[in-house]
Amino acid sequence: QVQLVQSGAEVKKPGASVKVSCTASGYTFTSNYIHWVRQAPGQGLEWMGIINPSGGSRTYAQKFQGRVTMTRDTSTSTVYMELSTLTSEDTAVYYCARDYGGNYDAFDIWGQGTMVTVSS
Amino acid sequence: QSVLTQPPSVSAAPGQKVTISCSGSSSNIGKNYVLWYQQLPGTAPKLLIYGNNKRPSGIPDRFSGSKSGTSATLAITGLQTGDEADYYCGAWDSSLTGVVSGVVFGGGTKLTVL
Question: Which of A50, A56, B86, B99 lies 20 to 30 Å from A74 when distance is taken between CA atoms?
């Protein structure tokens, strides 16, 4: 079945970086863009950016410009999201989500989420 | 502070109908498609509505979406206890200068089925 499987939970110290992976299966990896969305504890959804697995182009939310890097590896159908200079405010569940296509800007398949905890 | 505005909570009895509103602006809802997601406790969000009023395969027709101007509404009829969840609206936001800002969401609405 179509699914996105993310890497496991992470605990990081302030100032460190974290890299979360998202491996796609059940569909053609290069056919759909992948978004990253995060959710702080008890809070709403926050869009971080989007990557095109085919050409590698990406767009980042202004808030994360300079601190986030999204990459992909077509040989393993995996996209990565790396966030640097972490603070306690980056403690959140990070989700990857597949773009539905058709310019609807909808996310039809979500990963299970990766909890990132930033604590000294 | 979320870009899109939703009521924090709504409630209704089983079998009844409930609506959740989502208010935005000309740079997001006013010019782009509205999406709705359902998030059950401890799980990833699930796409309920896309393209303002379209349902993905497997989503029952008890869920419906509409849009008018810079506002949108999610309606759920025949409420079930399993519908208790957080509901989020979203839309792409395009600044007036044409520079894409990205996807914006509402703060979420907690639905309680009494």
Answer: B99
Total residues belonging to chain B: 114
The answer to whether A107 and A96 are in contact (CB under 8 A) is no
User: Cα(A82)–Cα(A20) distance, rounded to whole angstroms?
Assistant: 6
CA-based nearest residue in chain A for residue B57: A108
Residue of B nearest to A45 (CA): B105
Q: Read out DSSP for A16-33? A: --EEEEEEEESS-GGGS-
pLDDT digits 0-9 by tens, A71-98: 999 999 999 999 999 999 999 999 999 9
Q: What is the mean pLDDT of residues B84-97?
A: 87
| Chain A residues whose beta carbon lies within 8 Å of the beta carbon of residue B108 | 44-45
Q: Which chain A residue has the Cα nearest residue B5?
A: A44
Contact A45 B88 (CB under 8 A): yes
pLDDT of residue B45: 97
What rounded mean pLDDT belongs to chain B? 93
**Contact (CB, 8 A) for B114 and B16:** no
Q: Rg (Cα) of chain A, in Å, rounded? A: 14
3 state SS of A3: strand
Q: Which of A35, A46, A62 sits opposite B101 (nearest CB)?
A: A62
- Give yes or no for residue B95 having a pLDDT over 80: no
Complete edge-to-edge strand list for the sheet that includes strand A68-73: A3-6, A18-25, A78-83, A68-73
Q: Mark yes or no for CB contact A44/B104 under 8 Å.
A: no
